Amino acid sequence: MSLSIRNQIAGTVSDVTAGEAMATVKVRLEGGQVITAAITTDAVKDLGIAPGTAVKALVKATEVALATGSVDGISIRNQIRGTVSGVASGGAMASVKVDVDGGGLTAAITNDAVEALGLAEGSSVVALIKSTEISLATT
């Protein structure tokens, strides 16, 4: 199956904490960084997700925010360090490609944000992704 979601990062499930309706799933990316996905408990069961399961973390580019460093005092759990590998600007929006250990991410942000953050190829950034915006696919 082909998907329009640009961000598809491979990893392995390291932990599952199931609640009544929702579960948190920790995924160790190939580069060693860990991200957390919040998905339904039914999805965990239907996909057979357990520690050791190979998965792909799927995130729409519009759900990836960028910062120039770690952010304290925020509820967003996923802060993935990386390096900008390219910036393509359009009329109002830009597509920023970020290399992270184990893969790459694309963030769709405004041109104003690119300018305000001084983003260019080689810039160090932190990609911020809410746990609820990460979907998982078994491989």
Word description of this protein:
- This protein is mainly beta and 139 residues long.
- Helix content is 10%, strand content 53%.
- It contains two helices and ten strands, in the order βββαβββββαββ.
- Strands 3-2-1-4-10 form a five-stranded antiparallel beta sheet. It has a five-stranded antiparallel beta sheet with strand order 5-9-6-7-8.
- A hairpin with a 3-residue loop joins β1 (7-18) and β2 (22-29).
- It is elongated and about 45 Å long.
- The termini are close together.
- The model has no long low-confidence stretch (mean pLDDT 95).
Secondary-structure element pattern, one letter each? EEEHEEEEEHEE
The major sheet is characterized as:
5 strands, antiparallel
Number of strands: 10
Unreliable stretches, pLDDT < 50, 5 or more residues? none
Classify the helix fraction into a percent range.
Answer: 10-25%
Q: How large a portion of the residues is in β-strands, by DSSP E?
A: over 45%
What is the residue-averaged pLDDT? 95
First-residue to last-residue Cα separation: 11 Å
Q: What is the radius of gyration computed over CA atoms, rounded to a whole number of angstroms?
A: 15 Å
Secondary-structure-based class equals mainly beta
